[in-house]
Amino acid sequence: MKGFKQFLLRGNVVELAVAVVIGAAFTAVINAFVKGVINPIVGAFGAKDLSSYSSCLKGPCEVSATGEVTTGILILWGSVLSALLQFVITAAVVYFCLILPMTRYAARRKSLAEIQSDAEAKEVLLLTEIRDALVVQQR
Question: For the chain, which domains are there?
Answer without folding.
Answer: 2-138 (1.10.1200.120)
